[in-house]
UniProtKB/TrEMBL annotation:
Entries under Gene3D superfamilies matching the protein: SP0830-like domains
Family annotation (Pfam families): DUF1697
InterPro entries: DUF1697 (IPR012545)
Name of this protein: DUF1697 domain-containing protein
């Protein structure tokens, strides 16, 4: 069991994207409170949920996925990180400021993203992604997280399409969202 004061971030994969799998955040908060999660907060409409629980990650993920399927009729993957893990993700970006600025100058929209996976990709998936043509875009795998740096547009990038080669579901968030979630976890822990 986790510490009773563990702050978690749940990143829901594939909700409110392109008008599909719509869930109102107020209804999501209510459903998650009904399964015993505490201090439930959401951030923007793309399925970012902060909460406190004393349960472990596997138990939480299963309960949350079952509740979302039951309440909303949507089958999806919930990716969880503790507040500490999220802080590490934000603090340990492997790309230099210069490289990020260079990418941002040529990118349409955001250039820096993180793909969050429920588990580390198998070596065969890592090899498949490495063998794929990813254009000028860069990535760095750190355990269950993949840092992504796009030099044009995330929407048209070969790297975006090739993430599935890892063989593990991924949910992707831009750097601004990751930074905001990290700030929100610090507030919840205070």
């Amino acid at each position: 069991m986790a510490n009773s004061k563990t702050v978690y971030i749940a990143l829901l994969r594939g909700i409110n994207v392109g008008g599909k799998n719509k869930i109102k955040m107020a209804e999501l908060r209510s459903a998650l409170e009904n399964i015993g999660l505490f201090r439930v907060k959401t951030y923007i409409q793309s399925g970012n949920v902060l909460f406190v629980s004393e349960d472990d990650e596997d138990t939480l993920r299963k309960r949350m996925e079952e509740e979302i399927a039951s309440s909303f009729g949507i089958t999806l993957t919930v990716v969880l990180r503790t507040a500490e893990e999220l802080q590490r993700i934000v603090e340990n970006c492997p790309f230099s400021d210069e490289l990020i600025e260079e990418a941002a100058a040529s990118a349409v929209g955001e250039s820096l993203y993180v793909a969050l996976l429920p588990e580390a990709p198998p070596p065969s998936g890592v090899d498949k992604l490495a063998a794929a043509e990813n254009g000028n875009d860069l990535y760095e795998i750190a355990g269950r997280d993949v840092y992504l740096l796009f030099r044009q547009s995330v929407r048209d990038a070969k790297l975006s399409a090739n993430l599935a080669k890892l063989g593990v579901p991924a949910t992707v968030r831009n750097w601004n969202t990751m930074s905001k979630l990290a700030a929100m976890t610090r507030e919840m822990e205070a």
